[in-house]
Amino acid sequence: MSAAAPRWAISQPRMHWTLEANLAETVAALEAAAAAGAEGCVCTELALTGFHRRLPELLGGDALAAALARLCAACGRLGIAAVVGLPTRGEGGAVFNSHVYIDAAGRECGRVHKRGLTPSEATFFTPGRARGWTALGSVLATSVLCRETLDGAQLLPELRAALPTGDDRQRVIFWPSYIADSDVEQAALCEAYRAGAAELARELQAWVLQSNWAESLNEPSHRGFGAGVVVAPDGRISQVLARDAADVAPVTLHGR
Fold it and tell me: Which domain holds residue 14?
């Protein structure tokens, strides 16, 4: 008898200025995902801090580490895995834009650091290095952060080479984002992002789950946020989340 298809959820949250409020938003998404029978929930880029101009103010002291510990505890309490964006620190004071993997027992089991930084991000974050795959419950997962879906020429050979031999778990690419179809230029760019995600899905025979912010605090009048996509392994968009609205959407990941 074949194993049941994995069921994950996508969080598309409201953004807040404070760490405490973003943590509460994230935990609420995990609770909704667990109630929907998901084994895990993917959360967006810099989910714990928010992606806004006050982000540097949230990195002092131990508050961010404490928030991550509380999130891990919530995963253990709910019996659900989570993949969540937050800044992390490296050697020599480096700060990474990271996607952190937490298993259903509440243990951190992997990190992906964003390498394809925008010019503004590069003034604050340090680029990450090569990445591979993380075994997370019934899936084999990696993350491609926001505009990195345009970097398939670099990522595809790297991710192909890192695939573990003989692991037949469903492959999932988490795509945490902060993008919007806010004008004609941005709409064209978002379309290119989605085309890049579809190429990654086809070439790696993986599901792509996009977790995008539902709004911008820096530009509160902008619209076109949310609308995260689910891309099937054949490159087809199989689901689109709500636009300009918070959402938690369960997704069943049928075979490649």
Answer: 7-252
